């Protein structure tokens, strides 16, 4: 095999992976945009969407200083600066601990795809934030979906998957409690409707699955060992 042919193969593989990633992202966006159209249009007054305002009002009526502080912490750790910082830490830590690039690229890919789809979706789906007092400054983006929740889901689910693939015991999945805490905090603080949070979790999860399918083509050593057993 010639050197040019050898070099062309990785290039073709990279292009194929990029195409699969883009096509997958388009499908995820289509699903999310369709869901946004439903929650802001035909299904807006259908249960359980019909009780979303009641949920937001009830949470706002039961606020107290302690819950304000707790929810403020979880909301802050998922904002854009914190998410970027934590993503960089995760990228470097995974590279150092696994001595491999593929897992770090997987985490970065999941987050980049999530952010891209989130931004495009907020330009297509125009949804006002809940009609309650907001405890955080509302960004200019649409309320649908919850970007904080989507980012937290993508980050912590991706990290948990990498850890599990490398032999960490099942409690690593407790990392998924973080996106749940972030989602609840965004609800409590009046920044999102319940369906926004659910959509954020779905977005983050789908982006992790897409990145896994495209980037993590081969199982990690720990997964191969479990398969042989």
Structural description of this entry:
This protein is mainly α and 229 residues long. 71% of the residues lie in helices and 0% in strands. It is built from nine helices and no strands. The two termini are 37 Å apart.
Shape: globular
The number of helices is: 9
Largest sheet, in brief, is: none
Main structural class = mainly alpha
Approximate strand percentage: under 5%
Classify the helix fraction into a percent range: over 70%
Q: How big is the Rg?
A: 20 Å
Report the count of strand segments.
0
Element string (H = helix, E = strand): HHHHHHHHH
In the predicted model, the low-confidence regions spanning at least 5 consecutive residues are none
Mean pLDDT: 90
Explain briefly what this protein structure is.
The chain is mainly α and about 230 residues long. The chain is about 70% helix and about 0% strand. It has one domain.
Descriptive tags:
229 residues, 71% helix, mainly alpha
Topology:
Layout: H1 3-40, H2 52-61, H3 65-76, H4 80-98, H5 102-124, H6 147-165, H7 177-188, H8 194-215, H9 221-228
């Amino acid at each position: 095999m010639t050197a040019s042919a050898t070099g062309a193969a990785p290039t073709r593989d990279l292009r194929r992976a990029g195409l699969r990633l883009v096509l997958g992202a388009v499908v995820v966006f289509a699903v999310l945009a369709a869901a946004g159209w439903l929650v802001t249009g035909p299904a807006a007054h259908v249960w359980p969407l019909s009780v979303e305002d009641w949920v937001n009002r009830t949470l706002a009526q039961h606020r107290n200083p302690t819950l304000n502080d707790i929810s403020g912490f979880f909301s802050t750790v998922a904002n854009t600066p914190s998410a970027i910082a934590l993503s960089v830490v995760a990228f470097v830590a995974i590279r150092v601990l696994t001595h491999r690039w593929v897992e770090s690229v997987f985490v970065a890919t999941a987050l980049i795809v999530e952010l891209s789809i989130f931004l495009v979706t907020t330009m297509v789906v125009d949804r006002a934030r809940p009609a309650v007092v907001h405890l955080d400054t509302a960004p200019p983006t649409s309320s649908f979906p919850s970007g904080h929740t989507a980012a937290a889901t993508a980050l912590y689910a991706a990290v948990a998957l990498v850890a599990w693939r490398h032999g960490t015991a099942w409690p690593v999945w407790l990392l998924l409690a973080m996106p749940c805490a972030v989602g609840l905090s965004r609800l409590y603080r009046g920044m999102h409707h319940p369906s926004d949070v659910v959509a954020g979790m779905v977005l983050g999860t789908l982006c992790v699955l897409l990145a896994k399918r495209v980037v993590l083509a081969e199982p990690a050593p720990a997964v191969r060992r479990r398969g042989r057993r």
